[in-house]
Amino acid sequence: ARDCKRAGETVSMTITEPSLRGYFGAGSEGDWLGLEEREFQCKATVDSAIIGALKKAVGNDLAGDIEKRLVILSDRDFTWFARYALPVMARNVLSKDGKKKSENLWYEESLAPDTVMYVLFGERDLAVDAITTAIIDAPYVQIGGNETIGQGWFKMARYTAPELQNKEAEA
Fold it and tell me: Which residues contact 22 (CB under 8 A, 6 or more apart)?
């Protein structure tokens, strides 16, 4: 709701933190959902205002999935997933002398490929124009490492608040 307000959208929504092992999401109240080895019971469906705002923000490609896949967990349950359910891959560089000796061992966490992330850019001097030109107008952008193994790619979608759309139309 805070981000929608900053983006010029009027959305009235109330989400109280679900009780332990409860979630807000798609489905009917009382439905069960299994995530990893944990089970959660649906306490209420997500308000249509939230779904509508998210559909606008993520663009047409992902809008259909949002309604079916959105789950809002308590901070406590989400923390558990952040700590214990992210895939951790061990990576290694072996010596080139043929002895297969480890030269560099490190670990990487990665998000699921269908993770939806968003960021709000607000106007401050001319920074928004520079960011829009450099990043947002590109259909895809690679952020972070591991480009060569297909990680870090983001599909970009631009959302303009209705009040800003009117200003752009006048200009």
Answer: 40, 41, 42, 43, 74
